[in-house]
Structure to design on (255 residues):
């Protein structure tokens, strides 16, 4: 699968992987911060953004997409940064293809099975009847009636597009995401370990990486570091960008 992507900057390659319901746009601020020292490649993962749709989706298929992407664009030894679903994909790539990544940064996700908390968002999006809505504001109101967190609503709205002059629709392949959600929220099953440097970043207001997860993390990533960013929830890089970028910068450059 040929993924849509954005490229920013020059220098050692960074591969930036977005989370569920996200797109390459989610990493633009990070890419622009590093543009004078690193060349960022930011793909839309399958069934997201402007990349192709496919009925099947798990971390093996997404890893195949990324391996093809790296080969196609001649990207060697990248530093891989992933948030949430993208973080799980970064872990999968590091464990299955340890020779590929120079080091990895995983943002607010562990290699464990998570409850189906996102299914409510999917169901709310599927309820939108595009035969009877004519504006983004109407979709906003429909989602807000179902989802109390306005930041989540705004994230989901970024997946709206005009399918024709007078008809809105979802850009992401919502049906495929819905049918594969167990794969995306499941644990990473492996007997491997990644012995290169790895940084795990969590938000102090998030419960995606808790202390009970540390044994599993250290078993799979024995050279890992863990940093906690204050005043940040699951979207760490958005909630506290200055502290997030400070930790990433130090891990990448030692400065």
């Amino acid at each position: 699968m040929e993924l849509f992507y954005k490229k920013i900057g020059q220098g050692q390659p960074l591969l930036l992987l977005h989370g569920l319901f996200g797109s390459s746009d989610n990493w633009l601020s990070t890419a622009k911060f590093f543009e004078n020292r690193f060349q960022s490649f930011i793909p839309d993962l399958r069934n997201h953004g402007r990349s192709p749709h496919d009925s099947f989706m798990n971390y093996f298929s997404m890893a195949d997409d990324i391996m093809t992407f790296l080969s196609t664009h001649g990207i060697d030894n990248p530093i891989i940064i992933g948030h949430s679903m993208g973080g799980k994909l970064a872990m999968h790539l590091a464990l299955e293809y340890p020779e590929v990544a120079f080091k990895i940064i995983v943002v607010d996700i562990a290699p464990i099975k998570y409850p189906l908390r996102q299914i409510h968002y999917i169901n709310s999006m599927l309820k939108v009847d595009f035969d009877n809505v004519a504006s983004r504001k109407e979709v906003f109101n429909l989602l807000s009636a179902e989802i109390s967190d306005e930041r989540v609503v705004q994230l989901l709205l970024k997946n709206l597009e005009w399918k024709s002059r007078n008809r809105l629709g979802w850009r992401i392949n919502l049906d495929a995401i819905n049918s594969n959600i167990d794969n995306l929220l499941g644990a990473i099953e492996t007997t491997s370990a990644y012995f290169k440097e790895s940084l795990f970043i969590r938000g102090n207001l998030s419960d995606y990486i808790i202390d009970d997860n540390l044994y599993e993390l250290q078993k799979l990533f024995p050279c890992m570091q863990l940093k906690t960013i204050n005043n940040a929830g699951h979207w760490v890089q958005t909630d506290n960008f200055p502290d997030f970028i400070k930790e990433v910068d130090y891990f990448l450059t030692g400065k």
